[in-house]
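Translate sequence into structure tokens.
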Amino acid sequence: MDAAKLVCKLAEVFGDRVIVRSQYHIQIVDATKGYHDIWVSKIGYVKFKAAGDRKTHEDVDLNFIVNNVRSQVKTSIEKMQEMLDVAKFMNQCEKRATTIGSAIFTDAGFKNGQAKIAAILVDGNNIDAKSRIIQAANNTAAEYEAVVLGLSMHPLLTVYNDNQSMVNTCQNVRVKWLPRTNNKAADTIGNLRK
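Result follows.
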């Protein structure tokens, strides 16, 4: 397909989210993931790589690109689920605040070398939550980084984590183990999709 025609067709579907980087490189902005990349050769051969994906799809057409970009956009149901997850997290934190007073809860989710770490500081009626996406070698390393994040949030509070082997090897006396069932707030924010 001719690059100019492809740009026009993409603009009909995605509007000003389409960016022309060169006569052979087109991008579509994804507000949450970055840029979808499209390359068109001089003879009209089209390649596509979705934002956040490592795989480049060869010899694709307009429908393939449109369907892949649309499939990456969160639906209203997914957005509602995220809001429910946040409400669930807040409810868990409020329950924890009334039972334990002040502490920091940490957790991590790990997959394919990437982790989402979370630390929740509960101090009376105040709740502070931090979450980051990091690179990690394994789940234990991800849990350790979540604890480091937690330790940075308050100089005196105890930091809790549900990975017993990591806690046992940790040299910091402020780090304590607690069962996963008592760490639901950190687990929830550590696994939020947004």
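Note: The longest helix spans residues 76-100.
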